[in-house]
Amino acid sequence: MSAQPEVWRVSTVEGIFETDLETLKQWIIEGCVLPTDKVCKGNLSWIDAGRVPKLKAAFSGETSPAPKPDGSYETFVEPNPTYASPTVEPDRVFSPHQTTACHNHPDAAPEYVCRMCGAVFCKQCPKFAGGKVPMCPLCGDLCHEYRKVVDRTARAALQSSGFGMEDFLRAIRYPLQHKSALLGGALIYALLMLAGFRGSIVAWVLLFGCISHVISQVAWGRLNRSFMPDFSSFSLWDDLVVPAFLGVGIMIVTWGPVMVLVFALIFGAIKSGGVEHAAVVDGGHSSESLNHDDLDALTDPNADPHKLVEANQKLQETRPGAQIAREAEQSKAEANDPAASLRYLLPYLGAGVVFVLLFLLLIAWGVFYYPMALTVAGYTQSFGSVLNPLVGLDTIRRMGVTYFKAFGMVILVQVAALVVGVIIAVVTSPFTLPFMGNLIGNFINATFTFYFYLVIACILGLSLFKSADRLGIAVD
């Protein structure tokens, strides 16, 4: 009766496995087991693999690798220099185009791929350690699920590629991958937009919640996730309050300076006009009003004729039509003297030029920074980060030309949305109802607006995904 082989257990980052001593030595030689990994024999206590006497020779390289099974995998798998290091992760060494079917059963669907030799197997081919962990029948190393490796490989290839028109087309197709969510979200958003001011606020919160969700998911490499938030675990704070505050922060940091300038101009102009008007009226009254001496001259029959003439002139100036006559004379004088008019208008023209330049500069800031404000809100979910433009400017610096490409794509989508909105308004104008407006046109336009904003969110998320190495984003 043959002796039972020793059963060893080994604990690595991949999990806990059971094997025999020779296979364990083979794993050590191939670098799959490190000296700091824990091993135990049978039911004995766990110990560092490097402290086991029977394994020291394998760690020191004194033990030769066990002979490979008959028909070693070099005769079946095309050698690849990237397999030289046994610790390389499978998503960095696996090439899907090399292996599209089971190594032993070409007609069977692939289910597993060896992390060492890259061979692909169906469900029946691998050996299962402990009945759960798949092992390669060729080299004895661990196997990973084929679909997960393919997805990680494709995602790594996508991330390493540059940001360009392919990503723009991918963003256009993205909302269409989840048709039911797109139709449902667009329907809810459009109905809320028709429900008055309060409904519009809720619709705006819903839309921005979807935008931030898409940016976050795509930036982390989750390109196949739905863009609708998970309302099954609805949170008033996360799903309503946070998007509302982030939206307010975006408006403040982008269009807030423009609004402050406009309000300052309006209230400043009103105040200035009131002061100037009061000064004119008060000044005219003080210079033209009759004093006590003038009244004495008018009432005294023996008054000095010179004082009487001055008092009569002041009395004439107090009549209602006198101020109008003076303004008419002043206008006539200015018309005859263009230089005087220019001197009068020059301070106002200078202030107007400064205001226009400042207004255009702030408009340019809002247009340029708005996509970045959306981006910061999407991947930080922080109101403070959104309000701090230094966070966005630093992100632009690290993203480099990628952000400017994304900015151009966002502008293109917004122009397309404007054109579509105009076409919808013109086509549906015959359906405009009294006191209710164009309900049909507004509903259709809101539906398209929902779609276009999802495209914008996907563009921004992809720009972050392609810049993950520079931004420190740990993608899936």
Please name the defining characteristics of this protein.
single chain, 476 residues, alpha+beta, 4 domains, four-stranded antiparallel beta sheet, three-stranded antiparallel beta sheet, 62% helix, 6% strand
Topology:
Layout: E1 8-12, E2 15-19, H1 21-29, E3 38-41, E4 47-48, H2 53-60, H3 90-93, E5 112-114, E6 120-121, E7 127-129, E8 133-135, E9 143-145, H4 146-160, H5 165-173, H6 179-193, H7 196-219, H8 236-288, H9 292-299, H10 305-317, H11 320-336, H12 338-380, H13 383-387, H14 389-399, H15 401-427, H16 439-466, H17 468-471
Antiparallel strand pairs: 1-2, 1-3, 3-4, 5-6, 5-9, 7-8
Describe this structure in words.
- By secondary structure, this protein is of the alpha+beta class.
- The chain folds into four domains: 8-60; 73-160, no CATH class; 165-258 and 361-471, no CATH class; 260-358, no CATH class.
- The chain has helices at residues 21-29, 53-60, 90-93, 146-160, 165-173, 179-193, 196-219, 236-288, 292-299, 305-317, 320-336, 338-380, 383-387, 389-399, 401-427, 439-466, 468-471, and strands spanning 8-12, 15-19, 38-41, 47-48, 112-114, 120-121, 127-129, 133-135, 143-145.
- Helix 8 runs antiparallel to helix 12.
- The longest helix has 53 residues, at 236-288.
- The chain is elongated and about 145 Å long.
- The two termini are 52 Å apart.
